[in-house]
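seq as requested:
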Amino acid sequence: MPRAGSLDACSVKLVDASRVRSARRQLTSAAEVERICSLFRLLGDPTRVRVLEALLVGQELCVCDIAATIGALETTVSQALRFLRATGAVRARRDGRMVYYTLADGTVRRLLADAREGALSKTVDPEPRRRSGGGR
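struct tokens:
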């Protein structure tokens, strides 16, 4: 018996060409998919999430301020900020020898807020358990 999600999961091999064309027209381009994946990678590291949370307050913070806020080493925060700057998630402003960071736009702010809301509303199990019983 084919596994769910495998290519052989359809019991009848009949492709509805009009449905496929309709679905394909709605697909995101490969370049846009890559930008979406890049955006979600921002939340793939706990330190980056904490840095983004610290910057959610809306005021500029330097590396020292962020490190003290999230309880991390300055070098760890600097590495996270380097990634976040490269992806365009945060903006840096130099004032003499100091560099201050802010969120670049509302996209990351909304994404982080939605992720936090989702995490608080339910526990997400990263490794779903197999159903027991039923002879499977």
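The chain is about 50% helix and 10% strand.
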